[in-house]
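Sanity check

After download, print the first record. It should look like this:
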Amino acid sequence: MSLYDIGDQLYFEGRYQEAADIFRECIDKQLELNSSINYLGCCELQLGNFEQALGWFDEVIGRAPHWERPYMNKSRVFIKQGNLIEAKKCLDDALQINPEHEDVYYYLGIYYEKCDDLFKAEEAYNKSLDIDANQPETLLNQGIVVSRQGKYVEAIGYFQKVIALDPNESAAYWNITQIYVSTKDYNQALLYLDKYMILNKDDEEAHELRETLEREMTDSRTPITKGTGPKETSS
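Expected structure tokens:
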């Protein structure tokens, strides 16, 4: 395995500091230089070092101005910082370079969610899924967006697609649970909550919700107030 591939694998495993060290070595050795610089920026982003990340992405843009990915990655930093104006500019630049990149539309969906524009977020996620239908993170976010619009059947469909692609994506089980709680279908809510808890045995919120659901099923006067928020994947 090449040094660059080792960094790629470490990043995939979420070992961002180790990956960053490898990509610095790649840069020193001029290995896959533009990609290594971009990857190092992504590592810094994941580590919360936003200004360093922006610096690396700007360096890549200077070297490869017609590559959409560093513009997209800059948008991720700005979204994290709450600078939505600059985030949108970077996404527009990325789409101008490549209007058929599913990841750019994914982050555009996140941008519109941050703007609380659910219609445009749904539209952006749909464009991403039109390019590649098998994206668990995009499907999960789309399910949350349509659920927030009250389109529960459609939302469950998206979450079920996530589970089909990745049976260990616990956020999908949690979000289906929340829909069934909101529609007072407590049997189905318990079914999916139990599947969630198999993957998250120590989640106190889930344990509290289960107790509340069991109590609700024996005493209809007990209101359910726990665990009503969606769970998302990281950006």
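If your output differs, re-run the checksum step. Summary of this record's structure: DSSP finds 13 helices and no strands in the chain.
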